[in-house]
Amino acid sequence: MKKKTIAIDMDGVLADIEVQLIEHYNKAHGTTLSKESIQGLAEDDAFDRPLLRSVLNADNFFRTLPVMDDAVESLLRLQENFEIFIVSAATEFPVSLAEKVDWLGEHFPFIKWENIILCGSKRIINTDFMIDDHSKNLDYCMGKPIMFTASHNINQTHHLRVNNWKEAVEVLEKTLN
């Protein structure tokens, strides 16, 4: 029997980009942003765009992101019944391409290289499920979209939401019955 497929975003879903972004942004620009202060704000409203881009284009920013709680164990468990693809809209920040591949190799060595998709737009991704923290990606999802909670999407309600990896596993495993 063919396994169902899942496209899983990296930043904000597997990698805790918010924590690192706020830390690097504050250090580089002398600001005092916190997770609470950006809650419910779109990224363009929470951060000055040119300053944000300078942080995201810095060497080792993506390579050193912390892993989301329970992400490794959850993907190992899901991999038993699903084919997993890691899909990241990485080409906007070319410095991130090699860093993301290296990061995945360190933290998710069980994901094969051919299941890593670094792209610009996710509109062409055709999997049974997509887990992402951005509506702009989920709105075009050809399968079942699942929104992973992040500060910038907290007020959005038009997709099934999971708040953490334990909830994501529970939702996906229910589809097997």
UniProtKB/TrEMBL annotation:
Range of residues in the leader sequence: none
Matches recorded under InterPro entries: 5'(3')-deoxyribonucleotidase (IPR010708), HAD-like_sf (IPR036412), HAD_sf (IPR023214)
Active-site residues from the entry: 9, 11
GO molecular function: 5'-nucleotidase activity
GO biological process: pyrimidine deoxyribonucleotide catabolic process
Classification via PANTHER family: 5'(3')-DEOXYRIBONUCLEOTIDASE
Annotated family: Belongs to the 5'(3')-deoxyribonucleotidase family.
Protein name per UniProt: 5'(3')-deoxyribonucleotidase
Species in which this protein is naturally found: Flavobacterium hibernum
